[in-house]
Design brief:
Blueprint (H helix, E strand, L loop, with lengths): L19 H10 L10 H9 L6 H5 L6 H19 L1 E6 L2 E6 L1 E3 L8 E3 H4 L3 H28 L4 H19 L1
Length: about 170
Amino acid sequence: MKKPKGGKGGGRKARSTPSKKERIAIAIASCRNSRGRIDNRAVLAAARNPTHPHYDILHAEFEWDKDKLAEQALLARASELIRECRSIIQYGEREILIPTYVSEPRAPKPTYIPTMQIAKNAGHKKLVLEAEVNRIKAAIQRAVGLAIVFNLQEKFEKMLQDIMDIEVELDKE
């Protein structure tokens, strides 16, 4: 008979220190206002305030070099502009808006490629569709988690199963 993992009782071994994500979550929770709400400016203010109890945790998560920060903001805006480009395709009798550019699946840094160019490459189009399905699946999983908390999960479970079926079909190709 195998011994249960995790010491006595077979449960998982408790960590003595919280993970980085847990520490950040605690720090963010400390920024709630009197109504329990969290706002971006409160988190930023805590990250700037050396007397805030979670200053070290939050401060380390921001870029404080103004030149680097400006470059990041400009690059983020350039990416937004590229992603906002749309083309119209004819599908039967319907016109459908599609992204003009999609993320290059194999690029080491954010790069975009025309959708119609990807359509001509079987390997690339599969990678692009897999990435799209992964984004959809993550969004549905998030919705299912919320639905469970709100006791409405039945409405979302089929949607999650449908996207998982699509994922399996893509893997077969």
